[in-house]
Specification:
Blueprint: E1 5-6, E2 17-23, H1 27-38, E3 43-46, H2 53-57, E4 73-74, E5 77-78, H3 90-104, E6 107-109, E7 114-119, E8 125-129, E9 132-141, E10 148-149, E11 163-166, E12 180-184, H4 188-199, E13 204-207, E14 217-218, E15 221-222, H5 223-229, H6 265-270, E16 274-276, E17 279-283, E18 286-289, H7 293-317, E19 340-342, H8 343-346, E20 348-353, E21 357-358, E22 364-365, E23 387-389, H9 406-432
Parallel strand pairs: 1-6, 2-3, 2-9, 3-6, 7-22, 9-23, 11-20, 12-13, 12-20, 13-16
Antiparallel strand pairs: 4-5, 7-8, 8-9, 10-21, 14-15, 17-18, 18-19
Helix pairs in contact: 1-9
Length: 433
């Protein structure tokens, strides 16, 4: 791991104060620290584990980026490798992050859990941690929005000899017991883990959800390149047709594996993968599925073709010379809906839950959340003085929770912070005079 500017925990009887406390030491929190250091604003980053912990510990062995390397654009730390249109693998991503960590040299208190952030009556915040008490004038929550893995209660009724993993704990096919594997969920993680198992020769059953898909390459270029030229990644959330509702969307599935390709579940089915609809229940030793496989596959393909059609329109409008394109035509269709699967007869010995995460901001004691527990903000700035969020999906644009957009978001939040700090200093100076 690269050098970290480690800070000692608070000593007994001390209540250290910082102008800003940043909760979370991932790429979002470190980006905030980078701009705070440039602005010469005192701050402390508090991280529950170690910096960039999620990238080191919650990715499977064959994990790689699904967006091209050129989109890795952390603050003043763009991708500098020789394959901008490739897709970094797990170890390369960690090496890229380690370089950024060393450059930022953030003041970090690691192995420290923030248990409560609370507004103080006189202003500012108390920050209670597993390593003592702190106070701050401002708090930036940079812990992301993926906190609690979603595992349905029906999992409790599965036979004890079936290995159950959440997607963040999956590593490779060899780590699973012999036998078939049920993957539940077909978003980015589910589809890629199902592919990983399928390529390893494992028998895979996949419960297909409503995740959309997109082409990896179309008309001679990566779809991401086309969408960048179309300024899709610069679209602010308030201009998106779904407005804030886009924050609830499941990411489109594709892969950067082996240089990048489509993930076509229909082709996997031709090759022996068993596709079902949404997993609903377990009764009498049988898994029960919703009869929506056909609709889910068709909907994913409709999205795929709709994105490509928008690229066609862009090419035509700007008279761009590009290879011809054509709509995707299904290579396989289910004969019907299968709604039950005998668990014992299937030979399933492992189940991997890939149905996402829910946010948990219960430790933030502030009236800034909506009825679903999501913070209400404008580009990360809440109505509660001194409280900010960073690193959330569609905080401002599509790239807000990714390497591509975090620099823009962090610069905006720190600019607001700097204005607040300067205003407070001016008020103090006026009172002192």
């Amino acid at each position: 791991m690269s050098h970290v500017n480690s800070i000692a925990p608070a000593g007994p009887g001390e209540t250290p104060h910082h102008t800003v406390i940043v909760v979370g030491g991932g790429q979002a929190g470190l980006s905030i620290s980078y701009y705070l250091k440039q602005a010469h604003i005192d701050h402390l980053v508090i991280e529950k584990h170690t910096v960039a912990h999620t990238w080191r510990s919650q990715r499977w062995d064959a994990f790689c980026l699904v967006t091209p390397n050129w989109q890795c654009a952390l603050p003043d730390y763009p991708y500098r490798g020789d394959d901008p249109h490739g897709f970094m693998k797990k170890d390369e991503i960690i090496a890229y992050l380690d370089g950024f960590i060393a450059m930022v040299d953030a003041p970090v208190l690691e192995h420290t859990e923030v248990r409560k952030v609370k507004r103080l009556p006189a202003g500012g915040y108390s920050v209670s941690t597993s390593n003592g008490e702190y106070t701050a004038d401002h708090v930036v929550v940079a812990s992301g929005g993926y906190h609690t893995p979603i595992v349905p209660r029906m999992a409790e009724r599965l036979p004890a000899d079936i290995v159950q993993l959440q997607s963040s704990h999956y590593r490779n096919p060899q780590a699973l017991p012999e036998g078939a594997v049920l993957v539940v969920g077909s978003g980015q993680s589910g589809s890629q883990i199902a592919e990983d198992l399928h390529l390893a020769g494992r028998k895979v059953y996949l419960a297909v959800g409503e995740a959309p898909r997109c082409a990896r390459f179309y008309r001679g270029r990566d779809v991401v390149d086309w969408l960048a030229d179309m300024r899709y990644y610069d679209m602010p959330v308030e201009q998106h047709p779904l407005r804030e509702g886009v924050r609830d969307n499941t990411n489109h599935y594709a892969t950067g594996r082996d240089g990048g390709r489509d993930i076509d579940l229909r082709r996997f089915a031709l090759e022996g993968m068993e596709l079902y609809g949404r997993l609903d229940d377990l009764r009498d030793g049988c898994l029960r599925f919703a009869p929506n496989l056909i609709a889910n596959l068709d909907r994913a393909d409709d999205t795929y073709n709709r994105i490509n059609a928008s690229i066609d329109a862009f090419i035509d409008k700007h008279d761009i010379d590009a290879p011809p394109g054509a709509p995707y035509l299904p290579v396989w269709r289910p004969e019907g809906e299968r709604t039950s699967l005998d668990l014992a007869a299937s030979g399933i010995t492992s189940i991997i839950w890939c149905i996402g995460f829910t946010p948990d901001f219960s430790w933030v004691d502030a009236p800034v959340f909506n009825g679903r527990g999501h913070p209400v903000h404008e580009r990360g700035i809440t109505l509660q003085d001194g409280l900010y969020f960073i690193g959330l999906p569609w905080l401002h644009t599509w790239g807000s929770g990714r390497f591509s957009g975090i620099a823009r978001d962090a610069a905006h939040v720190v600019a607001a912070l700097r204005s607040a700090v300067d205003a407070s200093a001016a008020t103090s100076a006026s009172l002192a005079a």
